[in-house]
Structures are given as C-alpha cells and as structure tokens.
Amino acid sequence: MKYFSASSVVAVLVFGLLFLVPNLPLGQLGIPSNLVTELLILTILALGLNVIIGYTGLLHLGIAGVYGIGTVCTGILVTEAFPFQQSFVITLIISTVVTALISMAITAPVLRLRGDYFALVTLGFCEIVVTVLKEFEHITGGKKTLQNLRPPLFPEFLSSLEQSLDLVGKWRIFPIFYYICLGLLLLIFLGLRNLEKSRIGRGFVAIREDELAASAMGLNPAKLKLMAIGIGSGIVGLAGCLFAVHSTNTTEPQVSFTFNVSVIILASVILGGMGSRTGMLVGVLLLLGYDKIGTRLLSDVLSQLPDKPYFKLSSWRYMIFGLVLILMMRFRPYGIIPEKRN
Amino acid sequence: MDLCLFAEFSFQSLSQYVLNGLLMGALFALIALGYTLVYGIIELVNFAHGDVFMLGCVLTYFLCMFAPEYPTSLIFIPLLLLIVPICCSLLNITINYLVYRPLRKAPRLVPLVSALGVSFVLINVGQMAIGTSPKSIQAQLLPSETNQSSANRETENATRSNEASEELTRPRRSWLTWADILLIGTVIPAMTGLALLVKFTKIGKAMRATAQNPIAARLMGINVEFVIALTFALGGIFAGLAAVVFTLKITTIDYLMGYKNGLYAFTAAVVGGVGSIPGAVLGGILIGLIYSLGAVYIGGAWVDACIFGTLIILLVFRPSGILGTRVREKV
Q1: Which of A99, B24, B75, B173 lies 20 to 30 Å (CA to CA) from residue A283?
Q2: Which of A121, A270, A325 sits opposite B312 (nearest CB)?
Q3: Rounded distance, CA A91 to CA A97, Å?
Q4: Dist. CA A306–CA A316, nearest whole Å
Q5: Residue A225 above 70 pLDDT?
Q6: Contact at CB, B111 and A329, closer than 8 angstroms
C-alpha cells in the first residue's frame, strides 16, 4: 500500500520552500517582497479557478471579473468613505461569501449552456463587470479606485488581543502578511483535498467526465455546477480580498481585471494540470513566478543588449502565455503534474 | 424657433448615426463571416480570428508607408485589397495546419483553449510590430472630404456671409465619406461572391456537406481537411478585406483592437445564428447599430456592456440566433 503519492511529496516540498522564503535574502537578490506575497495570492486564485475548470470542467473565461468583485467588495467594507469600516477578518469572510453569491447569481441562468458558449458568456460577464466597476464611481471609486485600505486585523472586541500580540499596523507588512496568506493557502489546499474526496467533489468530476451519464446515475448537474461556481468563486473572492488589503487599494479595473488576466491565470492552471491541486502550486509558481519575478532578474542580464523591443523580455510576455496554452494543449493536455485518476 | 432647429439637428444626426452603424455593421459582418464559416464546419470558436484581422490592419499600416501621393494612390488601394487578404488567409491556413489540425479528435474545449493561445501569440506579434501605443496612418490614399467641404464653405461664406453661423451649426454635409464608399464597394461584392461560391460551385457544395456531417462527407469522397483549410482561407480573406477597409476608414490601429472587434463580430455571428451566412450579415448590421447608437444615446463607456449583454441574453434565450435552427445536443 502506497501512502504518499508523488504529487503529495511535491506539495509538501513546495509548501516547505514557501515557508522558508521570508528567510531568504530577498533584498540582495533584487526580488521585491510584495511580489512574493502577490504570487501566493495568485496561487489561491488559481486554486479557486481550478474548482470550476479543473474539477467540474466549466471553461470559465471571466475569472478576473470575479476577482474584481472580491477586491471591490473588500474596498467598500474597509474604506473610510463608507460607514462599514470592518476589520480584516470580518472583511475576509464577507468578501468570500458575497463574491460567491454574486457569481452564483449571475452564472446560474447560463449554466445549461454548452461548453464553448459558457466560455463566451463568462467572458462577456467579465467585460460587463469591468465596465460597471469603472463607471459606478460613487460606489467603486472608478478609475481613482478606493484608496487607503488599512483595516485593523481583528474586530473591535478583540483589539486587545491584537495589541498584546504587538500586531497593530504591523500585520500588513511583509513577513507577517506573507505568513497569513500562506496559512490561508494551506487551509484552502487541505480543504480542497477533503472536497475532492467528498461526495460533492466526486460529483464534480463525474459531471466533467460525462454529464449525461452523471445525471443518469442520479446526480443533479445543475446543482453541482452551481456549487462548483460558488466554491470556486468564494476562493477567488478571498484572493481578491487579500489582493486589496495587500495593495491597500482596489487597483484600476481596466488594468487588473480584464480578459487578459483571466487568460494568464488560465494558462497557469493548464500548465500545472487541470484538476490537480499540486499542479496549481507548481503551475502558478513557475509561470507567474517567471512573469512577476523571473523577468526582473533576467532583464538585468539582458540590459547589456541593444535597446530593441525584441531584446526586452516584457515584449515577449503574451507570446509566452500563448505558447504555454498551445503547446500544453497539443502535447500534455493534463499538465505538468496530472491529476491522479483511479 | 429653437425647438425647431433642435429637431432638425437631431433628425439629421440620427440618420448619420444610423448610417454609421450600418457601415460599421457591414465591417463587423465581414469579420463575423470568418467566425461563422469556421464554426459551421468544425464547431470551433476561433478566438484568434480577431487577431488575424488585427495583423491585417498592421500590414495595411506598413504598406501605407509605401503609398504614392493621392491621385496615383487610387491604384494602390486595389493592390492593398489584394495583398492583405492573401497574407491573412495564408496566416489562417498556417494556424489551422499547425495548431488546430492535430487537435481534431480532442474534446471540444481543447482547441478553444489553443485558439486563446494563438490569439495571445498574434497579439504579441502585433505588439512587436507597432509597439504598445496606437498608430495612425499618415499617407492620404483617398480624396479628402474636409478640403472639399471647407472650400465649398468658403465660397458660400463669401456670397452669403449672413448665413455663416447657420452653416456652422449644421452637421457635416457629406453623408458618405470616400472610405465609406470603398467599404460598400468591398463588402457587397465580397458577400455576393461568397454566397455564389457556397450556393453554386462544387466546392461550395462540399463545404455545405462537411458542415452538415463531416463523416458522411468523407464517405462521399470529399476531402474534409481540404474543405476545412479552404474555410480558414476564406475567413482570412474576409478578415483581410475588413482590415484594409477598417484601416482606411478609422485610420487608427493598436495591437489590442483584434480582441474587441473580434468579440463584436463573434456576437454578430451569434445574433444571426452561428453557421448561417445571411445570419452573420444581419447580426453584423444589428451589432453595428447598437455600437453606433449606443455610443451616442447610452454613452461610449457602456457600448461594450450593451453588446456583451446582447450576447449573453441571446445565448441564454435563443442560442441558435435569429436565423439559425435549433439543434438538440447529441449524445
């Protein structure tokens, strides 16, 4: 009997590495610490998308819009312009739930569509969400965004705990917030592991493999798909909340939440292996790690070359994501670390 | 008096907007044909099609740098209408051969994801070619409108100077610009040609047969791969024609224009019923009208939302479009 599969060994190794990252001399290597944290947040985002695309097989192309909903939701709950001004813990929970509910509400009518039409409809939703976030300036701040999001960690009745732990104002700074994100990532990772083994998770996979056969076996595809959208979007909303708190504003919607962002996340999900949790970790850390951090390190090396667009890594960005999608689909459609199939 | 003026103004401008919408719609229809033909044959939403159109615009932009001065440039336009469609169709055939052909037997969403990848690669090529900022063509190929009308206005002003203020309040007199005439002169022959090709030639019959049932078509001795390649080539030709006309009409291009215009065109294809050629034309015109009138009466920022809203509502309530027939999903 085999107790440890290869992918779980990889997962343990990756988490161990991520745990040690703050001890590395990041400053000397020229890696900005906020990018490392952002990478963790994007990993959570990819895990959320994986529930929708990987487990259930719904090609959702508008995940950036869902991410945007989570971010703006956090902005509204925290900013001084509105009377809420909640703490981080409360905001995290509310953002997760609200994003899941909004996403379920807008996706529910289109769940019966075929795969490719579903992809286009979600893409359309993403564009509409971006427009709404951009134009409803009184609520979302529009292009100016909601600024200065610096919530306390705990709600008021626990503020003495925050003081006694000496975290006031400090918890948002690099190592501590990084560990908060890492903890949440680990929590979601383990939660998804349990989900995969549960009745619901197996239902998701059954729908992906053959919807008709699954419904003949007594599963309710519509209900399960809606659940997958809810769980996935909830995780994405949580990532959005972390992103808002991390960057202390709700970033411009037409930059951060567009179709391109959706495809970039999709590329890392596909690189890692649809449906495989460990694959998500590896895919995001490789592809987005290269995009966010690797390019910085390499561009120093390349800066000696003449100043032409094709000598700059930034001008190859789309090409790399595009080639990842094409080549993975052609040669390894189940990703670097394929999901275990029994 | 005031009210009367306003009414006249609004009617004139409304008709101008409707006309603009129809013209933009004809352009969208040209692009939409590329989606509809490919979808009709292999059921693939070819995301990369909009970016093939974008690269056509980029090619036109570069070719316009070699354009001669105005009167001789009128010979140059047919040359553009020849070179750019050929390049676009070659590009489309290459993409089909390298990327989609190996995936024919894969599940349906696999080529769709590949198409997204191709789209990104083409965007990157466009970005390398023209950079990230929008570019506009410098050469003047068509007779200019502004000189003519301002010259007219000057003579009128000289003779009837007391009516000068009234002259200014009116919208521009010419309804159709030369670029619009070029557009009409390209779109109508192209669409007629396609309709005749599909309806009356042997290869058109083969295309229709493949669209109905690829396996049966193969059994009847039709070279299905050839038909698919031809479909991509036709799509490329239409994208190229649209690119030339678009570049000469709008004159500003950028490397992300393929995504938006491609989605408008795809929406047009869906509105009319994916796979239906007259449907693509009808859908294109409807989307063009929404595009033009929505920008004026709802606000430019909401145009995209309107068009995608249309797409969503249609896909939910009538996925087969206006002219398409409803097909039940087979097991």
Answers
A1: A99
A2: A121
A3: 10
A4: 16
A5: yes
A6: yes
